[in-house]
Every structure is written in structure tokens, then in C-alpha cells.
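Hi R.,

Here's the chain you asked about this morning:
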Amino acid sequence: RDLLEARDLFERSLAVSPQSVEAMVNLANCEHILGNTDQAVRLLRDAARLAPDDTRITENLRLVLSSDSE
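And here is the predicted structure, written out as C-alpha cells:
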């Protein structure tokens, strides 16, 4: 339940600030944990376009993609 509430908060944050890399990454993490891999990947790729030098994003993307292939 807490994870669903967190996801809702990050979605609302993105509605207000659609370019918020922090909200995208956090929402992607929620989506990944909830099993929504495609959504997590999309969010992380969007975040990477906005912050290409942020290694945290590329690491999260690598983790999501590798866990999806297992």
C-alpha cells in the first residue's frame, strides 16, 4: 500500500513538474518494484535524456533491464 501511495505522489509530482528527473527516477523505481518494467524503462530513458551525465539513471536502467531478462 505504501508503494502505491508513493507511486501516486511521484505521478502527481510529474504532473506539476514534468521535467523532474528526481520524480521520474523515483517513479521508475516504484514501477519496477510493482512489476511494470516497460513503464520503468520508459521513465528512466526519459530521465536519461534530460540528465545524460547522471550515472544513477544508467545504473537503474541497467538493473531494470537485467532483472527483466532473468
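One quick note: The chain is about 80% helix and 0% strand.

Cheers,
M.
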